[in-house]
Amino acid sequence: MGTNQLQEVLAALRTIVPKNATMSDIKAGEAVLASNPEYQGKPDWIELCNLLANFYLEVPEGNRQDNLVRAKQLYVMLLGQDPSLHVMAKSLNGLANIVGLDSESTDADFDVAISKLKSFLVRYEKKAAPHQITTLLGTSAFLLMKRPGGDRIGALEEALQLRKKVVTILESAPELSSSAARSRALYNLAATHLEQESGIRSDHINSAILRLQEALPMRPTESDPHGREKILRALAAIYPEWTGADSLAHARAWAQAAAAEAQQLANTTSSVKAREQGFANFDRQSSALGIEFDGLEQSSPETIHQYLTALLSNHQKALEHYSREDRPTKWAEWTGGIGRILATYYLYLQQDNFLPEAFASYEAALERITPDGHPRLYQELQERIGELAHAAEDWERSMNAHLAAIEIGNSLYQLSKTKESQEDVLKTMRGYFIFGAYAAARGQQREVAVELAERGLARGSVEQILAAEIELTSLPEKVVEKVRAARSRVSELERQLRTEGTDSIREVTNKLSDFVQRSPDDLSLRITKDPKGVVDKAASARIELGNQLAEARKALRTVLAEAQAHAGTLPTTELSAKDISAFAESVGYPIIYLLATMHGTMALIVSPNGLIYTLSISGFGSRETNILLHGNEELPGYLRAAIYEEVEDLQESLNTCVPLLGGIISTITDTLNKMGHAEAALIPLGSLGQLPLHAATYESNVVFRMLPSARVLAPLLANRTNASSGREPTLFALAPPDRKDEEELPYALVETLVTATQFEGTGHGVKLAAKGAKNDEFFAAASSSTHLHLACHAKFSPADPLSSRVVIGTDNELILEELIHHQGDLSGVQLAVLSACQTAISDADLPDESTGFPNALLTVGVQNVVTTSWSVNDLAALFFSHHFYQQIDAGKSAAEATAVANRWLSTLTAEELAAEAKQMQSSIPADDFTAQNSINQIIAHYGLSRSQRPFEDWIHCAAFSCYGL
Predict the structure, then answer these.
(1) Which 3 state secondary structure label does DSSP give 861?
(2) Helix 647-675 vs helix 622-630: angle between axes, to the nearest 10 degrees?
(3) Strand 703-706 versus strand 679-684 pairing type
(4) Among the residues of 527-570, which ranges form H helices?
């Protein structure tokens, strides 16, 4: 062969679009390369190598791994020729694509490839042609999306900005780019929108549809049927979610039309058919490993069997194309899928013979990958093993699998940069801790069970909590200052990340959600116009802030370790069962973890004598808790009714919830009575922690208090002496400020005055803020007081729990996030009563994180916190507080005083209420006409009814709960 033949073959290959190449085309080119070594490095030879490498990446024939290896060889060979800028860009792009396409690539491989692309772009952005820059930007986005580990949500957002930049460049210079290139850029941008895991789904759907609609005319049937078919398939999949359509029926009609045209192309066009063959077909599919089969419950056994058999056959065909040795990750993914199918045979059809095969498939898949190389796949396989073992009551295997999944989750959490990324990891891990703890308890691994239960709580704030503990110690000031500075840096970056460049649609939805008292998921904002794909500067700023935050968290962990080493006795970030037993011994009563799974409810009782007991409670499990929480056709959901103030639904839900939960508390009470305990602390996990468990404790002869975790006991116990004897008892009482945007609370002012008088009557000091206070005034007064009483408005924000607030001033509010990050000393406060609506509610999506006022106040050193679980009645709050402080004056603990006051409130008659009001009247200054008028109205109204019990419903007599010591 000679140069003529090389040019002849090259000319023929130039006419072939890479995605339409065949193995015959590749062999022709390879033959020319092998026969003409003397032309190595020449322009034609370089062009041919580039073409062949591109073909290897696209061709659906042959062995996929062999194709990738050969493409990599060609690119490396080109880079070794002292290439031109053009060749360098193409070769770097090709090598980077191989990293993304090769399922065996590790995080390190991705990091190296991304780094090389960024370096090239920084160095040659002004020299390279626009199409080279856009290609490399697109490949960088591709790698960010494909990277197996790390900060998934942050990487997706960064990829989205790169895709937008590509579209902007191509649209600004259409004469320098083909319509096919612009169409590909729009398609990729749309696909990246659909991958996003943060923000509002409908926003991303609408953006994706607009991009795809713009791209479709650039892919005519005559010249690019395959490209058109891809776009049509994508549109058909997402049109039903389109809020820009006139109606759902209209959206479905568009979807059907797109699907019909795509299918016609697939049936009649050879190039489209070719892409459906071989490994290319399976590369575009997902294995059954991640499929949720919940819908099968409604199907007949015959239908289930047919479906699973067809699915199993497809997986077996896939494994014919994926070599255990050459493509171990793909092989593991599809082998794990087979395990999932076999597990479903066992779970839904009770075919026990499939159980060993399912475990064997999962284990075989695990052998082919490593937790470092492919953390998410490794975690998912362990999750599936734990899930199956749990169902089969193989408790040790379930525990070990969940432990392995937790360790992967810990690594992914440390790599998370954004709040969304962290929450995504925490949501995934939530079930691992609960199921792992349950399995450990059932397997008699009691210490492991307790440690897992505790480790699953407040994962997102454990370092901040530890930092707060260290700041309250007597360590050298230099050590404490380093911790304080590191904590402050993390806090500041977290605040910036929450507020910097907030997406307008997300921001509007959150505000609208709070305003109309509906979940953000219930609101569908219609977007009919969308700006061109420009680089979102705010999103770029968030990405940079995320990088800074990751470094700040790493620095905080370092200084915490230094402080712990310096002290030698500080608690670690992970409490042991021995630590928790020591807490129980210190407080003198059992600490009880309560969790529910599909097998039932389990109580883990850590007693003061150092022993751990397990108590299984049958007949009530996670299925029941989910019904109570979210409701069904017959019962309204408690969670929604409590958050959105749906009074009738809340009352109906409580009438069902409290008696059922009472059965659990009764069983625990009987056990504690036999053990000789009159008090206990409850730490409910998961869905149980979202239910009004406190309301079921008041009839018990055991005094229960709630705890968000055992960890909060560390600073409370350390400062208990300071709180009880370090200063003279002083009450800081805050009445509702005058606000035009809030309805009046006539009895809250009375409550504040009565409480202040009660406190003064015992010879103690009182600081009264009758018209509210500014934030700095509040913290100054609180830090020098032993008791806080806030009778005012408060509001939980379901869209953004950290924005939940207590209205303490005419034009200011105490925001939960500010309280969490507050670095003042409140360790002298023995009791804080938040007699305001919804102050006990925490993040509904992450209940075990305890993102609410009780955890925040306990963390900064307050010994006991009394809060409300829904919107409390103004008058009921007045009488609760009055009787509560009477019990406190009688020497009862805050927990017992709460229980007694609630019981008393439920039995209080109208006649007794009027008599109590008359007693209160002497506590109110005669010239305070507003408060006097409110009391007179109570006396006049309730003095006429002698038998009615106005507060006997749960919604009135069970709103208050006590957290702390």
Answers:
(1) coil
(2) 150
(3) parallel
(4) 537-567
pTM as predicted: 0.80
- Distance linking the first and last C-alpha atoms of the chain: 89
CB 467, CB 548: distance < 8 Å: no
* 846 contacts: CB under 8 Å, gap ≥ 6: 423, 426, 427, 430, 460
> Angle at the Cα of 125 (from 161 to 78), degrees rounded to 5?
105
Distance of CA 218 to CAs 29, 139, 179, 233, 382, Å?
30, 21, 6, 16, 45
Q: Packing angle between helix 354-367 and helix 375-391, nearest 10 degrees?
A: 160
- For residue 805, give the 3-state DSSP assignment: strand
Pair type for strands 612-617 and 600-606: antiparallel
Answer left, alpha or beta for residue 527, where phi above 0 means left and psi between -120 and 50 means alpha: beta
Residue 678, phi then psi, degrees to nearest 5: -105, -5
Mean pLDDT across the chain: 85
Distance CA 688, CA 595 (A): 7
pLDDT band at 607 (very low <50, low <70, confident <90, very high): very high
Amino acid at 114: I
- 3-state secondary structure string across 349-411: HCCCCHHHHHHHHHHHHHHCCCCCCCHHHHHHHHHHHHHHHHHCCCHHHHHHHHHHHHHHHHH
Amino acid at 757: T
Alpha-carbon dihedral angle through residues 193, 199, 201, 203, given to the nearest 10 degrees = -70
Residue 212 and residue 231 in contact, taking contact as beta carbons nearer than 8 Å: yes
Rounded-to-integer distance, Cα 64 and Cα 326, Å: 9
pLDDT digits (tens, 9 = 90+) for 223-255: 888 888 889 988 988 888 776 666 667 778 888
* Count of Cβ atoms closer than 10 Å to residue 397 Cβ: 18
Would you say the C-alpha torsion 670, 676, 678, 680 has a positive or negative sign?
Answer: negative
CA neighbor of 679 nearest in space, from 695, 658, 700, 707:
700
For residue range 840-894, list pLDDT tens digits in order.
998 888 888 888 999 989 888 899 999 999 999 899 999 999 999 999 999 999 9
